[in-house]
User: What shape does this take?
Amino acid sequence: MIDVKELRKTYGDLVAVNNVSFRAEAGAIFGLLGPNGAGKTTALSCISGLLRPDAGHVQVLGHDVVSDGRASREKLGVVPQELALYEDLSARENLRYWGAAYGLRGKRLEDRVQAVLELIDLHDRAKEAVKRFSGGMKRRLNFGCALVHEPQALLLDEPTVGVDPQSRVALLEMVKEQARRGTCVLYTTHYMEEAESLCDQLAIIDHGKIIAAGTLAELRAKMGERDLLRLTGRFDPAKVRQALSRLDGVEIVQVEAAAVTLAIPEASRMLPSALQLLAATGAELHETTLTQPNLESLFIKLTGKELRE
Amino acid sequence: MRFVWWTALKDFQRQRRSPADLALWFGMPLLIGTLLVLSMGGRSGPRPQAQLLVADQDDSALSRFLLTGLSQDASGSFIRAEQVELEAGRKRLQKGKASALLVIPAGFSDAVLAEKPCTLRLVTNPAQRILPGIVEESLRIFADAVFYLHRVVGDELRRFAGGPAPGLNTFPDAQIAGFSVSMNRLVDRVTSYLNPLAIELVTTTDEEEKEDQSPQQSYALLFLPGLLFMSLLFMSQGLSEDLWRERSQKTLRRVVISPGSVTQFLAGKALYGVVLMACTTLLALTIGFFYFELPASVLPLAVAWSTFSGTLLLLIMMTLQLHVSSQRAGNIVSMSIIFPLMMVGGSFFPFEAMPDWMAKIGGYTPNGWAVQQLKAILSQKVQPQSLGLAFSGMLVVGGILFLSCARRLRRGFAQG
Assistant: This one.
């Protein structure tokens, strides 16, 4: 279990993580969803012990990461966002070295190395130098290096960035398998589909703050049964607000000179009326996008911007 | 502690897969050493010779004796004397085609025989340093010899300097016979003083005698320590740069977040450096042992000294790398430091071929100091007490540098 309480980390004037609290349970996958620069990696760095928090507490299976750092690091496996491998060494040598860094030795080390090689499906290329591997193979090995010592808690920082679809599916399946074995998994991503398909619990983070948290169902409920209508073009914000306020059940999420975002129930019925009202304000429409309720629409609803911005 | 061994092993495995660095570390000193030895004619090649031009304006028996003496005595292997006209000699010297021009003024012979002041003028080639020095030294010896000759056979010399009696073309037989008898008595008298000089030569120690008889060994002492430390400096620079590689490939971060401590990781990297340097030193000095006839008894101490001081150089370079802003900056700074260090530290040119002031500065550089100590070890002139003090000092400085590196690695460098 990973317990984070009021975690805060600043870099000069920039508040990278601001009073973040959440709890990831054993045997479940906790997703930290947010755009690039939201503070996900900084939060993970504080949990892994790479960075020292300015305030707050982080416990990994009951061990404080600051005061009892070594014990917490022994329980943790970390899959960093960027590859952290020795390209000159073979897959087996990499796994051996990182296993040794976690105190494994002798037969246990060799057994674990072999088991991980089979798990990540690199046993037939175990002796080959990593620099000859494809991107997907390197990603799998990067993941495997965090598993050699059989960690009880696993941190994954956007492990599928830049991975081909086939390797991505394989990686996600391995993550699920770890959770099924009882490992506490903390997974950061800015891919909403990944978060939806993988995570049991989610926290949406933006500008270092958690803006929504819960199960996928709980988060969807926050959107209600409303679709998200996003319009781009040229608008008069004051006139648009006034005109659209006449429509029952429509929530104005965001109005700008170039874009309007609405949360709208029964979109197929309400859409013509909404467009008529907008046309009456003299608006010029360029593009209309209708999105079913999902994490992306929730994120837009909460922050007024898309996840990938 | 096992993580120390694993880290050292890991670095060895990486090095084995990328041998280009090793080739550079060993190849550069070998190449430079070979060029240096070849430029001096090789081990059995001709010695460098001073080209001495002599403008003999006296044209006397004594001036001719001086000219012949300079070419034929013990210095003859270093000096090639050639008689020239004054102007022609000046022109050749200006063109840099000689080491020095000696002007023997008219009246030189008379002045010497009458024991009057006389000036021999020596014009040296400023482009050369060592060879004109040899000529100058030989002339000093000659001046000293004239002084002592006067002390011993001054009267006879002065008598002959006056020439035959008026009206005679030659010296009378009686005068020549008298001179011969007095010379014979003189030789008898001074034999007891000259013999001890021969005995004094015998009293030199075996080692000194061996040293005198072994030009190969002086070659080894001249070049081998400097070239060895050139290799160790290249190694220090390359191994310390590996910290940046560890950082850029994010493996350093992985070490920080693992239970294997950063201190053990750094100790492992230093251990690999120690092993590599010990092997290099052993190889170089073993070659020196077989090829240059270095005494085998000094080998263990020489290997220990070179490895120890090489490790200190590694820690200095690591400290440097950990305090610059980027790998590129680290590369530029370390290169701009190690090349001047090699220059003044006796790696490119032996201290013996440097001007005194430069050799003095070189002795204060870490590598130059280590080279001088190694030379002292190899020539068995080292003081055990001062060596013990040097080892202790290096241990303390090395310990401080190591802890400061570990601290910097943990607090910031790994997070970049």
Summary: Chain A touches chain B at residues 45, 48-51, 70, 73-74, 76, 78, 80, 82-89, 93, 96-98, 100-103, 105, 129, 145 (CB under 8 Å).
